[in-house]
Design a protein that fits this description.
This protein is of the alpha+beta class. Helices cover about 15% and strands about 45% of the residues. About 20% of the residues are buried.
């Protein structure tokens, strides 16, 4: 009995230590989460309404969290981007009457890091480049901080 008790103690200690280590590794690190800022853009397309807003602020394209609504021929997006972003480029999944364009040739803009809201107008133009495919150019104008 005494031997059995001595053997089970190290096993219990190792199991407990493994559980604590697993929780420490699996738990998200809230301290490393980037502070976010709002990016509002009124986006239009040359061929109709845009569907989806993707953003690249230097670390690759992604679809940021947020919301949108359409009014007339413009779609209004309010999304969240990292406050540390110093560059910004936009794209849309596709525009009405135009298939998804695999070639993006838009513009990248410098933005000031911070927590203020960025507001802008955006436009995406789908163009046929002879003899190749359609190319999308997305641009921003009237960029303001508030």
């Amino acid at each position: 009995m005494i031997r059995r008790r001595l053997r089970s103690r190290p096993v219990a200690l190792v199991s407990a230590a493994a559980a604590v280590l697993l929780l420490a590794v699996a738990a998200p690190q809230s301290a490393s989460a980037d502070t976010m800022r709002t990016f509002n853009v009124a986006l239009s397309c040359s061929s109709g309404l845009p569907y989806g807003l993707s953003v690249d602020n230097g670390s690759g394209w992604y679809y940021p969290d947020g919301s949108s609504y359409a009014s007339g021929g413009v779609k209004y997006f309010s999304v969240y981007i990292p406050a540390t972003a110093t560059a910004l480029a936009i794209n849309t999944g596709f525009c009405d009457n135009q298939p998804q364009t695999p070639y993006w040739e838009g513009y990248r803009y410098s933005v000031t890091p911070g927590t203020s809201t960025i507001s802008a107008n955006g436009n995406c133009q789908d163009m046929y480049v002879y003899p190749g495919p359609f190319v999308r150019y997305c641009s921003l104008s009237s960029v303001t901080y508030s």
